[in-house]
Amino acid sequence: MNNQSVTLKLAHTADFAAFGMAVMAYVKKIEIDGQTVYAVHSADGAPLGIEHNERMAMLVAQQKNLFPVSVQ
Predict the structure, then answer these.
(1) CA angle, 51 then 56 then 58, to 5°
(2) 3 state DSSP class of 58
(3) Among 10, 11, 63, 70, which residue is least crowded by beta carbons within 10 Å?
(4) pLDDT per position in the chain (72 positions), as tens?
(5) What is the layout of strands, in order, in the sheet containing 35-42?
């Protein structure tokens, strides 16, 4: 068995928040006033939009030239 260890250098909070900002968007199912919707956010958490279905939320991200990632 190979028992190697790996040391990771943690980034500053600001660096972590900016990670993927220019290329990724996050889509998350949320509930507003009892209705399920899909929120689209940039990697730094800035809201980009809210859609009524996941497919449209993914398209919003793609229209902004971002790669959509579904999160839970």
Answers:
(1) 105
(2) helix
(3) 10
(4) 556 666 656 566 666 556 666 788 999 999 999 999 999 998 888 899 999 999 999 999 999 899 999 998
(5) 47-51, 35-42, 24-32, 67-71
Q: Give residue 34's identity as a one-letter amino acid code.
A: G
What are the extents of the domains in the chain?
Answer: 25-71
Residue 58 tokens, joined: 């993914």
Q: How far apart are CA 30 and CA 52, in angstroms?
A: 10
For 64, list phi and psi in degrees, rounded to 5: -95, 15
**The whole model's pTM is what?**
0.70
Give the Cα separation of 10 and 21 in Å (integer): 18
Cα–Cα distance list, 45 to 1, 4, 39 (Å):
41, 35, 11
